[in-house]
Specification:
The complex is a heterotrimer of chains A (306), B (251) and C (329). With 306 residues, chain A is mainly alpha-helical. Helix content of chain A is 75%, strand content 3%. Chain B has two domains: 166 residues, P-loop containing nucleotide triphosphate hydrolases (Rossmann fold); 76 residues, no CATH class. Chain B has nine helices and ten strands. A six-stranded mixed β-sheet of chain B has the order 6-7-8-3-9-10, sandwiched between helices. Chain B has a four-stranded antiparallel β-sheet with strand order 2-1-4-5, with helices on one face. In chain B, helix 6 links the parallel strand 7 and strand 8. Chain B is globular and about 55 Å long. With 329 residues, chain C is mainly α. Classes of the chains: A mainly alpha (306), B alpha/beta (251), C mainly alpha (329). The interface between A and C is large, with 43 and 43 residues. The complex binds adenosine-5'-diphosphate and magnesium ion. Adenosine-5'-diphosphate (ADP) binds next to strand 2 and helix 1 of chain B.
Chain lengths: 306, 251, 329
Amino acid sequence: MTYILVLEQILNGLQLGMMLFLMAAGLTLVFGVMGLINLAHGSLYMVGAFAAAAVAGWTGSFLLALIASLAAAAAAGALMELVVIRRLYRRDHLDQVLATFALILIFSEGTRWLFGSFPLFLDVPSYLSGPVSLPGGIQYPLYRLTIILIGLAIAAGLFLLIARTRIGIQIRAGEADREMIAALGVDISKLYTLVFALGAALAGLAGALVGAIQSVQVGMGEPVLILAFVVIVIGGIGSIKGALAGALLVGMTDTLGGVFLPQLFAVFMDPASAASAGASLASMLIYILMAAILLVRPSGLYGGSA
Amino acid sequence: MADVVLKTDRLNKCFGALKASSDVSLDLRSGEIHALIGPNGAGKSTLIKQIAGNLVPDSGTVELLGQDVTALDTVARARMGLGRTFQISALAMEYTVLQNAVLGALGGRGRVFHFFRNVMKDPELLEQARDALERVGLTQDANRRTADLSHGQRRQLEVAVALTLKPKLFLMDEPMAGLGTAGSKALTGFLDGLRQEAPILLVEHDMDAVFALADRISVLVYGQIIATGTADEIRANAEVRRAYLGEEDAA
Amino acid sequence: MMLTRESLLNWAMIAALLVVPLAAWSLDEPFIITLATKAAILALAGVGLNIALGLGGLISLGHAAFFGIGGYAMGILAAHAQNYEPLFEWPFLFEGSNQMPLIWLVAVVFSALAALVIGALSLRTSGVYFIMITLAFGQMLYYFAISWSAYGGEDGLSIWVRNEFPGLNTLDPIQFFAIAYVILCLALVFAARLARSPFGLALAAARQNEDRVQAVGLTPFVLRLTAFVISGAITGLAGALFADLNRFVSPTMLSWHTSGEIMIFVILGGVGRLYGPVAGAALYILLEHLLGGISDYWQIFLGVLLLLIVLFARGGLIGALAGREKAHG
Ligand SMILES: Nc1ncnc2c1ncn2[C@@H]1O[C@H](COP(=O)(O)OP(=O)(O)O)[C@@H](O)[C@H]1O
Ligand SMILES: [Mg+2]
């Protein structure tokens, strides 16, 4: 186990963390501002990936594909908000869960109907493929590094947006008090649509970026959605800072656990059972982390009262 | 001095910069009605919540029946005999009036882990529940859905549920609010007799009721008790007149 | 006793669930019997969830965990029995089993234990946190099952013959249906009594107003945890039966789609209605069968239907047919 391998895995953890942050940011904003739990957020991730794959297929341009993922997911998100979601703000969580679960069925089967069951492929463009040398002699895939940088840039942008801009002020006011911001004369339904579309666009971008490393297929959003929930539970619902901290924690734990737990077990077990026991435990590691954090802080690292 | 049933010792509670309780010390003795008055936002409900166990004070202690209960939760305090009515009715709204009263009686009995017998056919619970409803005048309404009750009737039901617990003391947060003149009169008469059963710490805005009922009155302003005494002493107290009754007179 | 429209409807439903497979049996249509068996088992899973969801107001998106644990209890015991590999030899020799009563017992005990642990952790929170955490724990077991290669990993476990029940031939569809149907009826009776019991009164009160329950000296956490355990155990039993019906168990039983589907049975029928899961599961099977015959993408229609019910017809099927719910008691 060399230190280069460790560093490489840390970068991988960082990359997963950044993707999770893009997902979790939208979820946590939507919950913080509108009080809505949206299970269909993973569908927006899928929409972004499919849009990117389709556009890349027609035009051959990765940049256009990314733009398409943002636009398609934002449009799908805005549509979803206008047609369904806005009827749910005043409903209880059960109705929100059911309606957004219904949306998953509609989106997943609809996509399968349009694109078929076979995975699509989105290629990493030539100018981003191949490894790059980092200080310390590490060879790391340029594309993954790009994902990390995009994630960091977006995180910084979101913090600025929320801390500095008019919309950010309205978002924070909306978290504090829905009636108040309506009383201030802000068009609250427009704000909600905007926030929802923003969250959707981030999810769509994440889908497109990951789609180039994995395959683009129906249902791809759901594992990520559940990881994003774990992120939010750990970070505290409604907090962007919590989403970032939770995403990095989950990304690191999942990546490093998956690689190093089997090796750790091999110290005192035979290789075959170490591999399987290590893999089993690694698959549960982030949930154990979540449970541990819940025991200490039931409302997450940065959450208020649950 | 009669037995002290409840005592708070220098309770402090802040919400950010706002000091909602500031060195609040008061006691409740058996057989008495101790009224707590003060303008809106003075911190009366905040105090009640600390006594009932919903809010943890920043410092200070709460003593119930001679035992320090500051670290105990609401449930434990209720089991010790603290019966409470809420300022905003806290009732099971889908239930009938009778079901709410039976719930109280069930809580008073404490043995809840029975999964097969029909709770609404338990003679002992029903008797306690009907009895409590009768005492507050809700017998006619026993089978109505709680959500369909008027505001005043919900206040009465709150009192009835507290009665089913057979508590050793009552905490009542504005039980008369919304009752109307006739209703307040009736409840005043009822509380008058109730003090023999268990003492009452009564938060109330209805000054007629307070002055008619209270053995002692404490006045809370900006989180601080500025005076405690009999009705006459409070009427005569200059600071109270200035800080509190003065406002009322002006209004 | 006066029969309300809802109780008439309930009787009609439970009778239909018996009459349809009996008719199919006399017409020699085993496939329809199997569909009815599936409906009865899924309804049982829903009856379990409904105790947490309808009575206790606990929106669990992790009930697939208990359904799957029940399924794996069946799969593991039966696989060891059929392969003559003892499950353990210490402290006593245990060879696995193909006897349903023992399998059910193991399924109930283990799903109850899992519900105890998951519930104790999740119930420290409420609202959306609770939803996400139950979902996450369910998913944890799903990934665990996938990585657990000793019992088939992602591919799951098959058994060759259905397990046995003393005195019955479980391979005969109508006899296996009878088992599932009787268990469903017992569970309905249990749930009905539970709802009217002292425990049920306190549990449903905690859903309506937590402060009130605490103020009368009862602890909502303990009430809810108990309900969650009972709920998980019943859903676990359903899981064991479901696996036996298919003679197969796989991680799919643990996936969160399964949790969502169990919830759909409860909702399609009507939340908090005792027989809601029966109506919901029957409707679901019917839709799957009818729409699935028309289009491979029938779940689009299911999604639209569910959406319409949530947005416009909150009482579900029973609500639409029997009108507004009455305060019980
Ligand atoms: N949970 C809370 N968080 C912040 N401020 C609170 C909270 N509860 C009460 N307050 C504030 O504390 C003060 C006292 O409130 P309260 O005890 O309800 O007054 P009263 O019952 O005497 O009208 C008010 O200014 C109120 O706004
Ligand atoms: Mg008050």
